Amino acid sequence: MITRMNQTIMTLCILLASTISVRSEAHFLEVFAKASASKNFIDKDSYSISVSGATGLAILLIPQIRIEGRYTVVSSLQNQLNVGSPSVIATLNDIKTETNIYSVGLDIDLLSDKYAIQPFVFLGAGYVESLRSYFVTLAGNSSATLINEPKTMGISANIGAGIRIRIAKSVAFEAEVYGYGIDPQKPDPLINLYGNVGIRIFM
User: Burial level of 138, CB count in 10 A (0-12/13-18/19+)?
Assistant: First the structure.
């Protein structure tokens, strides 16, 4: 009787230890950071530079699905833009735009977690703030005037798709195409797309 009780207690201890071990190896919390940079020539004298970065936190809800909060900042600079056609009436220089996006959504793995290369999609919504400034030089005038446009704010619909490659037990490399539409409830929303790469850490 005592021997059987000891065996039962030993079995329960083994099962409890196994359960704790499995749970300790599971990753329920994730942090990530991604970035991108590009330079595009509009013509031989004009170009635009864009830099973006995103960071955030994800919580695993069920296998393959996590809720994710992310902060994204997109900064762009266009060196010049001529206004007026066929004759130029003004030139805009150093056109700077900064967009801040605060979003929450679902990150969904398309395959089971046994695959090292994991395609995924992101669907979310958020809040957008945008600032723009530039210098204006009128035709025939050598002095420039700094213009700061009023801050614009709105609601965004966010979508992303990419691949996640597990390079270590707790680290993955990510490449993603991310897009956001500002004020999607309006008839003609502004839509922006860009790509980024980064890492995700499973905690």
Answer: middle
Q: Which residues contact 146 (CB under 8 A, 6 or more apart)?
A: 133, 134, 135
pLDDT digits (tens, 9 = 90+) for 141-171: 888 999 999 999 989 999 999 999 999 989 9
Domain that holds residue 108: 26-202
Q: How many domains does the chain have?
A: 1
* Per-state percent for the chain, helix, strand, coil, to nearest 5: 10, 65, 20
**pTM for the full model?**
0.78
- The CATH number of the domain holding residue 154 is 2.40.160.20
Token pair 């940079």 in the structure block, residue: 37
Tokens of 134: 């530039």
